[in-house]
Write a structure and sequence with these properties.
Shape: globular
Strand order of the largest sheet: 4-3-2-8-22-21
Largest sheet: 6 strands, mixed
Domain FAD-dependent urate hydroxylase HpyO/Asp monooxygenase CreE-like FAD/NAD(P)-binding: 9-192
Structural class: alpha/beta
Distance between the termini: 5 Å
Number of domains: 3
CATH class of the largest domain: Alpha Beta
CATH topology of the largest domain: FAD/NAD(P)-binding domain
CATH superfamily of the largest domain: FAD/NAD(P)-binding domain
Number of strands: 23
Organism: Pseudonocardia sulfidoxydans NBRC 16205
CATH architecture of the largest domain: 3-Layer(bba) Sandwich
Radius of gyration: 25 Å
Number of helices: 18
InterPro entries: FAD/NAD-bd_sf (IPR036188), HpyO/CreE_NAD-binding (IPR038732), L-asp_N-monooxygenase_NS-form (IPR052189)
Protein name: Adenylate cyclase
Length: 645
């Protein structure tokens, strides 16, 4: 008789699955010092890269992070229970490949196009997703290679479709495998999951179809069939985030158009059309593209964080029970973001301020946010209005903007987008980066508060979606060169902005027959078309998921959605997210019971973690959470495996 190996099945072999595997390996010595272990990574898409970062997508699509700002490894900044195991960031990996230090990463292996890109990349380049795909595949191989011989990693190319239990064993069915995989513990580590349309989206699709119109619902833009978009036609687009940016890339450069420097020697571009382009008329609640990524480094050093919105400041506010984020916490959140901004202004641009850092910090610490004392201090320290932080304008950059016609609206929107771009690439405005770094710290704390039950259900239903949207608009914007391209398309009349407060309807009584109509709060003019694209990811919904495994778990009650209720039981909001134990991602079923050997991590869960990879040196929440889950997974394994003949 011998003891069979422990077995862990991880559903999802993209960067989340890889990050979890890395942390499993790091914690083995402490939590599983002996015994054999099989780890099964299951994914229909390429291991390491997964669906979003797979190589099989347009080489025109780029990351919205600089090469130096991407890593999969822990470093000395990461505060976690497991050991720190450093590894190369994307930029460090590029340099090692160039130096010939990685035998598998050669010019022949990468191919001419990727090798040419790799030799041209620097720390501030926004690499292609194909290059990131190669890095992620290498990271997975590196992680596997560092595991001890008693750990075996099995890669299964297929889709997990179901889980059953017999005694202490779980059995994961995978398309293409003759027999299910036995597991002691299962982890759902998929990335963004598709979902069938919402009732509103289905109703819109039905009305559009009945009228002979076209509607493309939310989905990954790279997977959308854009052949239905005809050259020259007007296309209504709802959404101006990253999905919109991908749409622009695929419909313009992807159809043969080119960008060249403008003739006036400015930083602007000029678009040379191919003739196959449509005209996009785009809007959203904010009406503007996400803020551009910053293209500079901090000049004053990283601000000490958290300073005004950390555990010590938060604890007294939540000691008596859950609170509202906007009412109770926002003043400290805003002060923390402002601290990042003004720390960089004072420390990085001392020639522009009348106070030294010590005097400013003492006075800033002593003043409450939003008080006359704080307002007077900020006016004193930033005589130039451009050096002052305006959180309302950062959140709603087009608030109050109006024009009598769509034509009259265009230069107003374009000028604001262009000015935002200028400030995010001009090193005179590095306080933007200071505020961004502080927002990351605030985001981590808010995520912890959600898991700790420190926010009221009403605030989680109302305030947290606002905060997430605000954070995304600042943190998840496109690189500057993409904004320049969008501005060039606007100059060419091929991208037009509807403004904030976009609305859409179907009209069957138009003189031109059935049409889709769109407008906004910025102008009384209405635009008509026969096609609408919802340029965004589907809303999270376990119940509407098209993933067969998750759908089956929901039907069986093994997975439940997070439903926010008022004190009287009234449903405030169904987030659609998988309920998990916040500390370690253990899945909570429909009865409220925590499964001892099933875990979940990713954007489909109620624990919001900012990205599957992260910036180095940031004590990243994603790396800390991967560590917590990996440790819980190892601790969930039976003390001794069952005997096998």
């Amino acid at each position: 008789m011998s003891r069979r190996p422990h077995s862990i099945v991880v559903v999802g072999a993209g960067p989340r699955g890889t990050g979890l595997l890395e942390r499993l390996g790091a914690n083995l010595g402490e939590l599983l010092p002996d015994g054999e272990l099989d780890v099964h990574l299951v994914d229909p898409f390429p291991p390491g890269a997964g669906r979003i970062w797979r190589h099989a997508q347009s080489p025109l699509l780029a990351m919205n992070s600089m090469a130096a700002d991407v890593t999969m490894y822990t470093d000395d900044s990461v505060l976690c229970a497991g050991p720190i195991v450093p590894g190369p960031s994307l930029w460090e990996w590029v340099q090692r490949v160039r130096a010939g230090e990685l035998p598998t990463e050669t010019a022949d292996a990468l191919g001419p196009a990727l090798w040419a890109e790799l030799t041209a990349v620097d720390a501030t380049t926004f690499p292609s997703r194909q290059l990131q795909s190669r890095y992620l595949a290498w990271v997975l191989r590196d992680v596997v290679a560092t595991l001890p011989p008693r750990v075996r990693v099995h890669l299964h190319t297929g889709r997990a479709t179901g889980i059953t239990e017999t005694g202490d064993d779980q059995w994961v069915t995978v398309d293409g495998l003759a027999a299910p995989l036995r597991a002691d513990t299962v982890v759902l580590a998929s990335g963004h999951l598709d979902a069938v349309p919402t009732p509103d989206e289905r109703a819109l699709a039905a009305r559009a179809c009945a009228a002979g119109l076209r509607y493309l619902p939310p989905e990954q833009t790279t997977d959308t069939d854009l052949s239905v978009v005809r050259p020259g036609e007007t296309v209504l687009v709802r959404g101006l985030g990253l999905a919109f940016v991908d749409l622009v890339v695929l419909l313009f450069e992807g159809r043969g158009g080119r960008f060249v420097p403008a003739a006036d020697d400015s930083d602007r571009l000029r678009y040379i059309p191919s003739g196959d382009e449509p005209v996009l008329v785009a809007g959203s609640p904010r009406g503007a593209t996400y803020h551009s990524k910053t293209h500079y480094q901090l000049r004053g050093g990283r601000p000490p964080l958290p300073r005004h919105f950390g555990p010590d400041q938060i604890a007294p506010l939540v000691a008596d029970g859950p609170v509202d984020l906007r009412t109770t916490l926002w003043p400290l959140m805003a002060k923390e973001i402002a601290w990042g901004w003004y720390h960089e202004l004072v420390a990085g641009h001392p020639d522009r301020v009348p106070l030294d850092l010590d005097e400013f910090a003492a006075r800033f610490d002593a003043a409450a946010w939003g008080t006359p004392a704080m307002d007077a201090l900020l006016a004193e320290v930033a005589p130039d209005p451009l050096d002052r932080l305006d959180l309302d304008a950062l959140d709603q950059p087009l608030a109050g903007l109006t024009a009598p016609t769509l034509d009259a609206l265009q230069p107003l929107v374009v000028d604001r987008i262009a000015e935002d771009l200028r400030q995010h690439v001009d090193p005179r405005h590095t306080p933007h980066l200071g505020a961004f770094v502080a927002m990351l710290s605030v985001y981590n704390e808010v995520t912890s508060l959600q898991g700790d039950g420190a926010l009221t259900a009403a605030s989680r239903a109302r305030d947290v979606p606002w905060w997430q949207s605000f954070f995304n608009s600042v943190a998840s914007g496109p690189p500057g060169f993409r904004v320049r391209q969008i501005l060039a398309l606007a100059d060419a009349g091929l991208v037009r902005f509807l403004g904030p407060g976009m609305w859409v309807s179907v009209s069957s009584d138009s003189a031109d027959g059935a049409v889709l109509r769109a407008g906004s709060s910025a102008t009384p003019e209405v635009v008509t078309s026969t096609i609408l694209v919802d340029a965004r990811l589907p809303d999270s919904s376990a119940a509407r998921s098209t993933d067969p495994l998750l759908a089956a778990l929901v039907r069986d009650g093994a997975v439940s959605e997070e439903i926010l209720r008022a004190d009287d039981g009234t449903v405030l909001r169904n987030t659609g997210l998988i309920r998990v134990r916040p500390a370690d991602g253990a899945i909570v079923d429909a009865r409220g019971a925590v499964h001892p050997r099933r875990f979940a991590v990713g954007p489909h869960t109620a624990v919001k973690v900012a990205g599957a990879f992260t910036r180095p040196g940031m004590n990243a929440q994603s790396l800390r959470y991967n560590d917590a889950i990996a440790r819980a997974v190892l601790q969930s394994l039976p003390a001794e495996s069952a005997a096998a003949a």
